[in-house]
Amino acid sequence: MIKLFNNKYLFFFILVSLFLHTISVIFSIGFYSDDEHFQILEITAFLLDINKMALNDPTGHYWEWESGTRIRPWLQPYLFYLLLDKLIYSLSTDPFIWAFILRSLCSTIGFISMIYLYFTFKDYFFTKNYKFNILLYFTFWFYPFLHSRTSSENLSISLFIISICLLFNVIIKGKNFNFIKFVLGSLLMGFSMVFKFTTVFNAFPFFLWFVIYRYNFNKIFIFSSLILITLSFGLYVDYINWGSFKNTYYQYYIHNLSSGETGRMKYFGIDPWYFYFFEIIKQLAPLLSLFFLFGLIYFWLKKFNNILTWITLFSFIIYSSIGHKEIRFMFSIYAFAPFFIAFLFEKISSQFILKFFKSLVIISNFIFLLITLITPANNKVSVYKFIHENIDDEQKIFYSDENPYLINNMEPFFYTHSLNKIMPINEKSLNEKNYWIVSNNYENISINLENGCHLRYSTYPKRIIDMNNNWKRLNLNWYIIYCE
Fold first, then answer.
1. Distance between alpha carbon 88 and the CA centroid of its chain, in Å?
2. Closest Cα to residue 35, out of 142, 156, 140?
3. Is the Cβ–Cβ distance between 185 and 226 less than 8 Å?
4. Neighbours of 393 (CB within 10 A)
5. Chain-centre distance for alpha carbon 354
6. CA of 236: how far to CAs of 249, 257, 327, 379, 460, in Å?
7. Is 396 helix (H, G, I), strand (E, B) or coil?
8. What is the DSSP letter of 149?
9. pLDDT truncated to tens, each residue of the chain (484 aa)?
10. Alpha-carbon distance 412 to 394, whole Å?
11. In what order do the strands lie in the sheet with 454-458?
12. Vertex 138 angle, CA 146 and 20, to 5°
């Protein structure tokens, strides 16, 4: 700790990272993927008796929670429910405050994981280009964005990172075996799989590496036993919420990953094995992601025995072999991106080329950092927030074209239960006085503005949207107007 305060450069950027996490928690409202909300917060809303249909859904959108399927773990929504019900609900009924507190909790755990990750592996990666590596690591756009998510991916990755740091420090770096850290690391790795069972694709390679390179029967037995205990605890939480026992992990495999008739993941789209090589470059901060991918492959080739190679390479192979692919499945690998970029750049001898590549990475990172910090993760949730804070209960709200209260035909009751009822606009609606219109159709909004209505909300500044006709045509922006 004394060394940290003496290193003013490092201490400054740790504070910068904390500030970025705080900004992301405040502004990055909503959710990145539907699962983040509808499989976590909506189940929390069900436990709070807000969502009435999550376990008895006639539309089939909550198929993972149907009695015959039951592939989702209860632990995370149940913990969120206990926090809201016992501590927060009596103080505030504002769902946006609830979501802010949950984001803050998740972000704090994520921030701790990235700090611990830095101090655990810095001596193995950050031997050169010190100032650049510190700058990139503590301003890396992905950390505040991921950590402010209430998703199972975020908590699972954060707990997994803390666990491998604990176990790495005990198994490799520690001169004296610390039993408490070993037990805590083992338990956290187990819980990371309970929160998101696909984390087993990272945890199992770690186990194999442990057996092959640091074999010790007693340690392996304790580690395996604690993993089984935490997985069993997850099944127990499922049992007390369902009222009957069913192996959730086995159900997940049968209904998602198996090649049989029940394996549903293939129905969500099949992608080629090389999908991630291209999508990583396209979606995860282009330019920076290119250097990450080259650094990742180069590290695999040069450091095959390294624990991070086993964790990332084998999970990459497994995810690439699964037909249905999504970029968020790569998050557990991308979380180590600053290390792999640092490893690649340390091998570049030309200072001119190195400075040029560093500039590209910093610019790319800054652009994505700016975008993810100040824009909502989901545009419709920012609409809900405006309605909640600015429109009186007795005022009428209409929508034209797309219903903003539906996201992929599902209603986010966690938020909308506190909002005014919204109705489709028609000719009769136009005879009303003092009403609101919500729309993402630029043409309709322009007509209403010409007829005397006033623009009160725009997801993105209207001047920016006006610059590009494609942005108008694609309905990227949500508007709220007030008509007297």
1. 23
2. 156
3. no
4. 8
5. 32
6. 12, 23, 31, 37, 45
7. strand
8. -
9. 555 656 888 999 999 999 999 999 999 998 988 889 999 999 999 999 999 988 888 787 888 888 888 899 999 999 999 999 877 767 788 999 999 999 999 999 999 999 999 999 999 999 888 999 999 999 999 999 999 999 999 999 999 999 999 999 998 876 678 899 999 999 999 999 999 999 999 999 999 999 999 988 999 999 999 999 999 999 999 999 998 898 888 888 888 776 555 556 666 668 888 999 999 999 999 999 999 999 999 999 999 999 999 999 999 999 999 888 889 999 999 999 999 999 999 999 899 999 999 999 999 999 999 999 988 888 899 999 999 999 988 889 999 888 999 998 899 999 999 999 999 987 776 667 788 999 988 888 888 888 888 999 988 777 766 766 666 666 778 999 998 8
10. 22
11. 422-424, 396-399, 435-439, 479-483, 454-458
12. 60
* Whole-number Å distance between alpha carbons of 259 and 304: 31
C-alpha distances out from residue 379 to 35, 228, 370, 375, Å = 16, 41, 16, 8
**443 within 8 A of 399, measured Cβ to Cβ:** no
Q: Could you tell me if 170 and 185 are in contact, meaning their C-beta atoms sit under 8 angstroms apart?
A: yes
List C-alpha distances in Å: 444 to 246, 405, 421, 453: 51, 18, 21, 12
How far is residue 338's CA from residue 344's CA, in Å, rounded to a whole number?
Answer: 10
Measured between alpha carbons, how far is 120 from 310 in angstroms, rounded to an integer? 17
One-letter identity of residue 162: I
For the stretch 264-293, what's the b/e string if a residue is b when 16 or more beta carbons lie within 10 angstroms of its beta carbon?
Answer: bbeeeeeeeeebbeebbbeebbebbbbbbb
| Beta-carbon count within 10 A of 47 CB | 18
Rounded Cα–Cα distance for residues 167 and 186 (Å):
7
Of 100, 106, 76, residue with least CA distance to 88: 100
Distance CA 462, CA 453 (A): 15
DSSP string, 75-95: HHHHHHHHHIIIIITTT---H
d(CA 188, CA 192): 6
What is the per-residue DSSP string for 202-268?
Answer: HHHHHHHHHHHHS--HHHHHHHHHHHHHHHHHHHHHHHHHHSS---HHHHHIIIII-SSTT--GGGG
